Amino acid sequence: MHLFLTSSNLTLNGQYINEENGFRSLLFDVLPHHIRCLYIASDPIDTIHNDEWGNYQKKALMNSHFLVDIFTILDDRNKEKTEELVKESDLIILGGGHVPTQNKFFREIHLKKYLKEYEGVIVGVSAGSMNCAKTVYAMPELPGEYLDKKYQRYLPGLELTQTMIIPHYNEIHDDCLDGVHIFKDIAYPDSAKRTFIVLVDGSFIHIHEGKEVIYGLSYKIEKGKQSLIQEKDCMFTLDS
């Protein structure tokens, strides 16, 4: 299996697969010439947006010269076919969205079980990347989640990696939620006993045969502090 954890796999205009840090070339190299693609939505009941976002992914692949023979969107409409659709796919895209909502859907369709024997390529996008971890860090993102004492920040994930990521740093690094700063007041304290890898759009992690390599600008939050891992156009191998 080749696993890519991305903050965003598309260009800013959504028209193409992102070429920053060599992502498009590396993805092209590990896929077959003709692709059967499965896009797994984050919110199974939001079928209108699922079709819209799925079509963005399909068009971006085709615009970037990937030959897409089959493109299927997996949500509530066909979730009973999850095992079959996974087995028939060369490329699985785990869509972005609300982390806990997607996490619940993944568990409902037993995706973790069906991915154990999967030997194709998986691309996680934002929430999809976050839910690939063994323990998922669901940092509060919607109004009220930080204040909700029942909100669960740690969820069981797909167990495809131990790495917990926070995406879209370029967009959210100054954001506040429920009156607090999402990094200084939420992520930093939560890192007392955990390590988070922070990615900007265009950076990604490639995981294959137990080796995890970060491509592009990235940071680490650990023990309440944030530090630079590397600049853009660089590679860094994470400790196993």
From TrEMBL:
Keywords in alphabetical order: Hydrolase, Protease, Serine protease
Pfam family, one: Peptidase_S51
Entry annotated with the keyword Protease: yes
InterPro entries for the chain: Class_I_gatase-like (IPR029062), Peptidase_S51 (IPR005320)
Annotated family: Belongs to the peptidase S51 family.
Protein name per its UniProtKB record: Type 1 glutamine amidotransferase-like domain-containing protein
Species the sequence originates in: Catenibacterium faecis
